[in-house]
Design brief:
The chain is α/β, with parallel strands linked by helices. It has one domain: SGNH hydrolase (Rossmann fold, 3-Layer(aba) Sandwich). Helices cover 49% and strands 14% of the residues. The chain is built from 9 helices and 7 strands; from the N terminus they run H-E-H-H-E-H-E-H-H-E-E-E-H-E-H-H. It has a 5-stranded parallel sheet with strand order 2-1-3-4-7, with helices on both faces. Strands 5-6 form a two-stranded antiparallel ribbon. The longest helix is centred in the middle third of the chain and has 17 residues. The radius of gyration is 15 Å and the shape is globular.
């Protein structure tokens, strides 16, 4: 019972802080529509069981076919190379894009990450899919979403959730380690994305 109360309180907290750009509307996703969750370990669900990853939980919440295309440890350059084949294979109506965290961890340069994510968005849009961008914080004691995600959202006008990962990783009760959520953290990520999709008209 205490866990349920905590989850409810955390959900309310995140709802207030991670709304993102609600002015961007998304295409309607009827039940069973294909969504591609593309990213690194945050998408793969590192730190929890596969069925507890946010794509798996989101699929149940939204009654959608959510493809978990997360690869732990992947840099954005490798993700850019991997993305076209997945888009061709699954033809998703929506791509949830959460990438670049490993570029930040390995200090490969935010410029490269920004360039690669911009190219990913262009590829996705060329195929007629919507994009929901999820920002990732820079590592450190005081977490803050890397500025280049805000720049990408401003430049492209994509749907954007800037603070979701930052808020989850700022709560030790929602983390499996310094940079990954636990099962409860992924549950909240899925719940917040589900809520965002409803507000944006996709559900």
């Amino acid at each position: 019972m205490q866990f349920v109360k905590y989850l409810s309180a955390s959900f309310l907290f995140l709802s207030l802080l991670s709304c993102g750009n609600e002015s961007v509307s998304l295409s309607w996703l009827q039940p069973g529509s294909t969504v591609l969750a593309f990213g690194d370990s945050l998408t793969a669900g590192y730190g929890a069981n596969p069925q507890q990853s946010y794509p798996s939980v989101l699929a149940q919440l939204a009654v959608l076919k959510v493809i978990n295309a997360g690869v732990s440890g992947e840099l954005s350059a490798a993700g850019l190379n991997r993305l076209p084949a997945l888009l061709d294979q699954h033809t998703p109506l929506l791509v949830i894009l959460c990438h670049g965290g490993n570029d930040l961890l390995r200090s490969t340069g935010s410029g490269a990450a920004k360039s690669n994510i911009l190219a990913m968005i262009e590829l996705i849009r060329e195929r007629g899919s919507d994009v929901l961008l999820v920002g990732v914080p820079r590592p450190g004691i005081f977490l803050s979403t890397a500025e280049f995600y805000h720049e990408i959202a401003d430049e492209t006008g994509v749907a954007y959730m800037p603070d979701l990962i930052e808020n989850v990783l700022s709560d030790t009760a929602l983390k499996s380690d310094a940079v990954h959520p636990n099962a409860a953290g992924y549950q909240l990520i899925a719940s917040e994305i589900h809520n965002y999709l409803r507000n944006a008209g996709a559900l």
